[in-house]
Amino acid sequence: MDRISVMRPWLGAEEIEAVTEVIASGWIAQGPRVAEFERQFSQAQGASHGVATSSCTTALHLALVVAGVRPGDDVVLPSFSFIATANAATYVGARPVFADVDPTTGNITADTVEAVLTPATTAVIAVDQGGVPVDLQPLREMCDRRSLVLVEDAACGAGSTYAGTPVGAGADVTAWSFHPRKLLTTGEGGMITTCNPEWASRARRLREHSMDISAADRHSAVLAAKESYTEVGFNYRMTDLQAALGLVQLGRLPEMVRRRRSLAEDYRTVLASIPDLRCVVDPPYGTSNFQSFWVEVLPGFPVDRDELLAWLAADGISARRGIMAAHLEPAYEHHSGVVAPLPVTERLTDSTLILPMYHTMTAEELDRVLDSLVTAAGAPGRHATRPSTANGVRP
Ligand SMILES: *Cc1c(COP(=O)(O)O)cnc(C)c1O
């Protein structure tokens, strides 16, 4: 029985050709392809500037630096996110302060943020969790009213829309991921998009040791000009190999989104008959790319989340625990950033799982996952004999 993965990147001959061309050109580090990828990606997202980076984690770090977040500041963000969101605030010496999330979308709201604001708060990081667009406008108004910087962590969001436009366009600065777990991939990679020209040019320098002349420009001259280092920077560069991959992948993005939305519809059609499994859906104000197709295992379901994961694994299906809660990890467990209880975060992180979904998923593979879920739904109840999960094999 072949194993069904939770996610697989969609790569083909065009990617191989694009990367091969870069190798043949003799210029593989950050150069013309990175510049072209920045231009095309930022244009696709409705932003005037794009600064490519080595990952979304480094993009978030740079975003907070250029936004002026400083040691001692508080940055409000969801605990219900990949831990990199909270780490970015920690990198600049700020305190991540955790806001709870909306139970339907898994995203922070203006209300959950307001509940945890402190006098030291200078920025908010809104996440489009799993590709579900965050309701940005109320956050935008709240941040404007209080002069807070609004950063969007759109790591999962390429191809999702908010009020008819690509997500990310309404924040002051947005960070993207091109990790293979997301839709559009460059292996590793990220980008900042912003309409603020000063922030973009500072981020562009900072990702390259804060050199006032880019390495690409210096190397294109026979006699390189003497560069100077304007502040303490980083090496957060993307390579032209990655950007060449990204350019092909960007062209595939609309098709990837269509495919995932169609798979989500197929899942929902069958899962609608199982009332105690709640599927992620589009919010009223936008569309998701379904980067993560998650379900919540409600109390009426015969087995709990971990048992359902083991049940699927016994059928050769690799699902994943849902979104993590950063405040429960050892890295943040004794941290002072929990200023109010996070009941929705804690419930969702315990009760959700991410089902397999990838571009090349076949009808047979989808049926296998659905059959396994439907059978689990008919299993003896939680209070009857529980299936053994110790070795991942069900009785
Ligand atoms: C994946 C992810 C990141 C980190 O992206 P990298 O490119 O791997 O650094 C950050 N935030 C969220 C919400 C993510 O899902």
TrEMBL record:
The keyword Acetylation does not apply. It holds the Pfam family DegT_DnrJ_EryC1. Its cofactor is pyridoxal 5'-phosphate. The modification N6-(pyridoxal phosphate)lysine is found at residue 182. The keyword Disulfide bond does not apply. InterPro entries: DegT/StrS_aminotransferase, PyrdxlP-dep_Trfase, PyrdxlP-dep_Trfase_major, PyrdxlP-dep_Trfase_small. The active site is at 182 (proton acceptor). Transmembrane segments: none annotated. CDD domains: AHBA_syn. GO terms for molecular function: pyridoxal phosphate binding; transaminase activity. GO terms for biological process: polysaccharide biosynthetic process. Keywords: Pyridoxal phosphate. Belongs to the DegT/DnrJ/EryC1 family. This is dTDP-4-amino-4,6-dideoxygalactose transaminase.
